[in-house]
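Hey L., structure's done. Input below.
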Amino acid sequence: MDLYHVWCNLKPGTGDVVFCERVATYLGRLRDERLILSYRVTRRKLGFGPPQLGEFHIAIEVVDLAQLEAAFQHVARRAGPIEGLHHAVNSLVTDLNFALYRDFPDAVRKTGEEQF
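Output:
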């Protein structure tokens, strides 16, 4: 599994629940179309966390990079209903940071054969 991470802050005047509802609509559509496996929205608690990362964190789970690329290509067309859903989320956020992680060890890693 690969995990695509997004950290962000909300633009001034943006409601936190409205943001979460829009993320659910947008990423829920991608999930329903099998372009992602799942997603999760979390919020920094009690101010704990590096200041350069946003208050909100979205983790998107995909099977592999091919599935993530298919999702990117679908959204990048900037057409159809998905464009409106993407814009509805993107227009609410600022200070974006992204990362890509994988389960480890994963199927491609030869375990027990450490090389130094």
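Helices lie at 16-32, 65-76, 80-90. The chain has a mean pLDDT of 93.

-- N.
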